[in-house]
Every structure is written in structure tokens, then in C-alpha cells.
Amino acid sequence: MKARVTVTLKTGVLDPQGKAIEGALKSLGIEGVGSVRQGKVFDIELDGADNAAAEAALKAACEKLLANTVIENYRVELQA
Amino acid sequence: MKAAVITFPGSNRDGDVAKALRQAGATVENVWHGDHQLPAGTDLVVLPGGFSYGDYLRCGAIAGRAHIMDATRAHAARGGLVLGICNGFQIACESGLLPGVLARNANLKFVCKRQHLKVERNDTAFTSAYAKGQVIDVCIAHGEGNYICDTETLARLEGEGLVAFRYCDADGQITAEADPNGSLNHIAGIYSPNRNVLGLMPHPENLIDGLVGGTDGRGMFESLVGAKNAA
Fold this sequence. Notes:
Helix content of chain A is 35%, strand content 29%.
């Protein structure tokens, strides 16, 4: 089973990298860019086929390591 | 004073802090991150500066989950002293020893320079050799030193006197211009509630020898050795 975990900064947390990327996109003349927030994506392969067990394991992985929940949110998506 | 300096993969200031501790009169043992136990009789655990695990994932995140950190948390829970410098401060936050996060510097620049700090209080094991309000001249070298926490935590840190050092100018003025990284309330270092754990971004161990630019860092190591002798 494959899964994708997305970690993003919480609303209100300063994201200087996102700001710099936003500035670079605007300077390239790419139109319509309002704002940019940078995050992280983890593609994870899991043993087993039990969705509930996989979700529980990934939630534990996020809480224990992948996200720092002081400043970050996470989202888990299981893929067929 | 028996100090244990932990080496993580990518630590690079472990030798310097060991030298500073020995100069002040401490005995120092080097401990590997994969060890499960601290040496018997350890008074102080030092999490040194560097780039543990190449700053992968988040600075200090992987080192903060090392085996030796379980022993370090137990040591801190017993009231033992823990000092986290720079990457060690990041590791202390990631491991739950201290609250908050060291985020990317607000100006996105890695800063490597001399920096003045104001000593907020001198009644702790780390700062008794300084005067309250003293301005000290040390070094900083970091890209992720922007201290962030939620408003509740910030109010607690301020209300309980847990801010250890703030960035200031040479005259002791605490201003946004003197803050190299955008930290909340210009915080350079914080204590745990019992003030037995200190994390700070600046490097006091750089300034222990007049031959290399100053000795304002010595006070921290002399304080620690003095705290043990007084106990």
C-alpha cells in the first residue's frame, strides 16, 4: 500500500521560504500568484493491506516525527 | 562537576564545549548518541552545536529521537542539568525538553557573527558568574534560530522568568535591529520550569580564550562548575 503524507505550516506561522518563492514567481512574470506557502510531501510504502492499521501507523509517524505540531499540520492520504 | 557531552552524527562543536568545560574545572566524558545510558554520576548533559543528521527533516528532529535522549529526559526529570547550544537547543525543543521551535531565520540568511546578549537572571546554575542584566559578547552561527511558540507558552516563559538571554546591542538595548533572526521577544535562550535545562542559540564556548577574541563565554562554564561545588 502507498500513502502520501503532506505537512504544511499552520496558518499564521511566518514562512520566509514561501515568501521568497512568491517573490521569485512574481518577478518571473507569472500572473495571478496571490501568496505561496511551502510544505513537505512524504511518499511512504507500507506493508499490509489494512487501511485502518495503515492510517493509525501514519498518524503515529506524523505525531512522533514527520510533523512538529507546534507549527505544522499534517494530512494523510492512502493510495490504491 | 561531571559532564557528558553527546555526539550525534553531524555534531561539530562537541570538542569545543568539552574544552570549555575542562578549562572551568569539569571532568568530561564523550557519549555516543546510540548509547542507552549516561555515565554514572553525570551532573550535566551537553547537547552540542553542529548539524545533526545534516538538518534533515527539521533541525534537531532526528537527533531529538535518539536513544540517549530517553536517558537525557530522565536525567532532566530528576533535576539533572542539561545544556543545549545552537543545534543542541533545536534538539532540546524537538525532544520535548523545552517548549517551542527554532524556525528559519526571518531574513532567510545564515548568520555568523559576534552578538551581544543580555543576561536576564543570574540566580541559576548556568549564570551565577554573571551579573543580572549584564551584556555579554559571544558568537552566533545559525540559519534556524528564530524562536517561535504559541502565545500561551510565551506568556508562561515571560511570567515565570524562564527567558535566559535576549539579543541586544552593545549598550544592552533590546531592539528589533539587534535581533539577528526574528525571535519572539528577541529570545536567545530559555530555561525549563525548574531552570535545570537551558537551551540557547549563541555559542558561549567560542569565547573562552582571549587569544581568539574574548572570554565572555567562560562565565557559563564557571557557573556550572561552581553550582556543583556549592551543592
